Amino acid sequence: MSAISASEFALALQAARTAQRLTPAQAGKLCLISDTQVQGLERDDLSGFYTIAYAERAASAYATALKVPLTLSGAPPFGTAPEVPLIDSSLQLPVDAPAVRKPAGPGLRRWYGVVIGLLVVLAIGLAIWRSPSSPPEVAQRPLPVAPDYQVSRPPVPATAAVAQQQADDANEVTAPPPTAEVQMPAELSEEESKSLRFYLVVEQPALVEVQDAMGRPLLAGRQAPTEGRRVPGMPPFTLVTDNPDAIGVYYLGNRIRPMPGADGKFTALFGE
Q1: Assigned domain for 161 exists
Q2: 229 falls within a domain
Q3: For a designed S-S bond to 75, which of 9, 35, 87, 182 qualifies (C-beta 3.0 to 4.6 A apart)?
Q4: CB–CB of 259/267 below 8 Å?
């Protein structure tokens, strides 16, 4: 079986990256994609992308960063667009076609408006005449009483009642929120890593601030080293850090690399 040659667009991407002396990892940082996805675009291999739309956006961003025209064969869009039938300009109306009626004059349109207004007034009056003078009485039914479930507790001495209440209040205040971070093992198989949406690994202490689409802060402040954790929330996510080399950010199995931002920090927006 003979190998399939790459398209002009894929060959142009590889030639532009080689001419700029960039590695796949360095080229991926220009448009926030992984080195595996960069090599896939240079070989017309879209298996590293989860959807065709995601692959088209990544290919367009990569081509723009390397100044490769999108008019080459094999460039996005990768999907096939439905063919639109052309209108034959040579078609002509038959000679005996009926003439187009002229619109009604201003006088006739004015009479149309008067008639329609009278009909509307008549319909409103008929509806008012048919409506009852007072609404019908609705029989009041007693609402069902919910059963009173009581949890049996051992009797607490009167002297320890205050201490028990303070302990219950302390437990309620210090209870973890429902979006608490879940610790995950560092070593994951390929299938397990793809099933995770947002996975964070902290190798060295670093500032990590994360917000989800609702603006809720998921992480804030300096994070201690950890083997890995899943960060739950609603995408897209906004991440800010002061040391991108000390953390590993993964979304849907793909590594996200923060880019330099303001105030010497690094930011990343992903999960759209």
Answers
A1: no
A2: yes
A3: 9
A4: yes
- The candidate with the shortest Cα–Cα distance to 239, out of 204, 200, 188, 185, is 200
Domain boundary among the residues 43, 66, 89 is at 66
Among candidates 176, 174, 196, which has minimal Cα distance to 186?
196
Q: Is residue 113 in some structural domain?
A: no
Residue 251's alpha-carbon distances to 50, 77, 230, in angstroms, are 12, 24, 10
Instruction: Quote the tokens at residue 92.
Output: 């002509």
Looking from the CA of 171 toward its CB, the CA atoms found within 13 Å total 6
Q: In the chain, how many domains are there?
A: 2
In a domain, 169, yes or no: no
In this prediction the pTM is 0.31
Encoding tokens for residue 220?
């804030």
Domain-ending residue, one of 66, 96, 114: 66
Instruction: Give me the tens of pLDDT residue by residue for the chain, a chain 272 residues long.
Output: 344 578 899 899 999 999 999 999 999 998 899 999 999 999 998 988 989 999 999 999 998 999 999 888 888 888 643 343 434 444 444 445 444 455 555 666 677 788 888 898 888 888 887 765 555 555 556 665 555 555 555 554 545 655 666 666 655 434 344 444 444 445 555 555 544 578 889 998 999 999 999 889 999 999 999 888 898 989 999 989 999 999 998 998 899 999 998 788 899 999 87
